[in-house]
Design a protein that fits this description.
Elements (H helix, E strand, L loop, with lengths): L19 H9 L7 H4 L62 E8 L4 E8 L4 H12 L3 E7 L2 E5 L2 H9 L2 E2 L2 E2 L1 E6 L4
Parallel strand pairs: 1-7
Antiparallel strand pairs: 1-2, 3-4, 3-7, 5-6
């Protein structure tokens, strides 16, 4: 038998001692838990209630509101599927034709993720073009191009001239990729 002076294990805290819930409510100004029945609008046969006041109707707008895609009801199968967009019309080859003895070569530099338009004389070779691009981007580069779906090196004069002659495909000026030779 336990004595009166020894505390028992299942002794409840005194009623004036704060519980953790009371402390949180006092510090953070949190509302105490309420019974959810008091928040619901339920009918209690013991307490007669008046009918709720009518909800005022908003005036109808003269302009129909477009529905967002998250609010749109499921599409019925009777509607036609959406039409596919046509690609932008291709530019005529004349846009990339030589002007005043110069052509425009677009150079993509993946290191800096930039695309440069370089105007060069029609007959310029690989070495002066490489020097011009290196001066523009700030480092030495080696060129490559996509030919027939494969990335090919444009390392010699003959390959550069062939690429420059066929750089306009389908009305678009294709890119020449400039890879950095020295990594930091």
């Amino acid at each position: 038998m336990a004595s009166i002076t020894e505390p028992t294990r299942a002794q409840a805290p005194p009623p004036s001692a704060p519980t953790p819930n009371r402390v949180l409510a006092a510090i953070h100004n949190l509302p105490r838990r309420m019974r959810s029945g008091t928040l619901r609008n339920t009918t209690n046969p013991a307490m007669p209630t008046a009918a709720p006041p009518p909800v005022p109707q908003r005036p109808q707008s003269t302009r129909a509101r477009t529905q967002g895609k998250e609010n749109a009801p499921p599409v019925a199968s009777s509607e036609a599927p959406p039409r596919r967009r046509r690609p932008a019309p291709l530019l005529p080859k004349e846009k990339w034709a030589p002007r005043d003895g110069h052509i425009v070569i677009k150079v993509w530099v993946p290191t800096t993720d930039d695309i440069w338009k370089v105007r060069v004389p029609v007959g310029e070779g690989l070495a002066p073009f490489r020097a011009r691009v290196a001066a523009k981007v700030g480092f030495d580069v080696a060129f490559a191009a996509v030919v027939d779906g494969h990335l090919r090196a444009v390392a010699d004069e003959d390959a550069f001239r062939r690429w420059a002659a066929g750089r306009v495909r389908g009305g678009r000026n294709t890119l020449l990729t400039a890879h950095r030779l020295e990594l930091l």
